[in-house]
Amino acid sequence: MDRNLALEFVRVTEAAAIEANAWVGKGDKKAADKAATEAMRSRFNSVDINGTVVIGEGERDEAPMLYIGEKVGSGKGMEIDIAVDPIEGTNSVAFGYPNSIAVFAAGPRGTLLHAPDMYMNKIAVGPKAANAGIHLDKSVKENVEAVANALGKPASEVTVIVLDRPRHEQIIKEIREAGAKVRLISDGDVAGAIAPCLHDSGVDMLMGIGAAPEGVIATTAVKCFGGFFQGRLAPKDDAERERAKSMGVDPDKLLEMEDLAKGDSLQFAATGIVEGPILKGVTESAHGVQTHSLVMRSKTKTIRFIETHHHVK
Length: 313
Ligand code: VTB
Description:
- By secondary structure, this protein is of the alpha+beta class.
- The protein contains nine helices and 13 strands.
- Strands 1, 2, 3, 4, 10, 11, 12 and 13 form an eight-stranded mixed beta sheet that branches. The protein has a five-stranded mixed beta sheet with strand order 7-6-8-5-9, with helices on both faces.
- Helix 1 packs antiparallel against helix 2 (29-44).
- It is globular.
- The structure holds 7-O-phosphono-alpha-L-galacto-hept-2-ulopyranose.
- The site of 7-O-phosphono-alpha-L-galacto-hept-2-ulopyranose (VTB) has 10 residues, from strand 8.
């Protein structure tokens, strides 16, 4: 994909983050999401792409904007698929918890899995542990030890990031029994999956169940870093199993990175809304508003952190 698009893409997530920021702590998830979605949608229109939303705000009848199948961009450029999450961590924005980003991933038509909106069991590590034999089907202890070996430190110094949910009670127990540390987050496992790729995040591995569509977005970023991600759908009943099948995704299949986000022409852009393990949030600056973003292309694996001072009159 065209490298000149990187700056265009970051404008899209910056706009969403700035709009979402106005809603931090106001207790209104819907209004926050609407503001960020509208900003993302309108910014996309000035980018020269012929984009189709494959992961978005919902089906056409339930989402007015950035719905699945919607065309975005000026229509002039190449045909690409887009996976968006105008606010990944809506709770964080609404209630002022840490860790929320505006994010999207893109790839040539057909490269991003059309993941059904249901749970996914996930595991992710950074580049240093990418070939350590981490596997979703291994025990927690085996995975913790493999990461510890790859990083050259004892299991007691390994930190695993996990969404703070009752469904993770067992896995949290096992991580601690393996001697490792658990870092709980209220929301935002996209940033959680990317964190092990950053050497200064203090996080070595992500484990646990989050939403499947975000697994595709996270994989795109993890690939750009040369990290590792595996997922498997975790349908909660037979109806969800059937829905997964009807969307062409085997609910029992182990999904490797190539299944989730294919090839090496992927792009990723994210801007922090509320500070988390990978990005600072939107802050005021003398110039107006300051944003922190991460933009990457999988082809070159160039990682760009962009600090932008937006002039607000
Ligand atoms: C959220 C959110 C995550 O999954 O937890 C959601 O914070 C689903 O889990 O970042 P719950 O139903 O328990 O809230 C994510 O959106 C993405 O995987």
